[in-house]
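Write out structure tokens for Phosphocarrier protein HPr.
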Amino acid sequence: MPASADRVGLVFVSHSAKIAAGLVELARQMAPTVRLVAAGGTDEGTIGTSFDMITTALAEAEGGAGVVILCDLGSAILTAEMARDFLDQAKQDQVQIVDAPLVEGGVAAAVAAEIGGDLKAVVAAARYALQPAHAGEPSADAGTADPGEAGEISRTVILVNRDGLHARPAAEFVSLASTFAVPLTVNGTDATSLLSIMSLGLARGSRVHLASTDPAAGPAISALAALLESGFGEA
């Protein structure tokens, strides 16, 4: 699937070409339309970073909505800053270097870009990887869809897919949740945060409690429950 021009692009800067390329491969499983560009290693194929490679990667990643750069080590950040500083001022303003875990932040940022987040939202998603996860506990009976206390709408379903909410189905779930204009939680955590969902460690057979305080959230909860019950196409 071709990269979309209206998505924020991402550049992964690592001292290792294999790490940067591997992260692009991983993130592309969850963000197939985002411009994901690896800038790993040096021009000579050795361990290190390259000003020229990062400059080229920035041009490849730019599709009109801005670019987010994630780096593995401090010296990579310095090289990335140098490459950004050589851009025109208008382009510099559209390039953000985020101090966040390369893998977790990169995957979260890619999913945020995939679902149409702007530059600010993609940066926030990457930075969220620095925060500890806070998971709530499910409280409804499986299969119910009734208002709870204070008007809460909720439903609990059982995960049936073989590997539970691992990266790919979690990204699919978050993408769907993000299409609804109502607050949604999964076992007490934000249904639109990939890292929060994955931190729950929901395996096959787990109870997944979907809830919202918005009385209009019924259709959203039903759609998410149907996705979970479908098994995401896995055996």
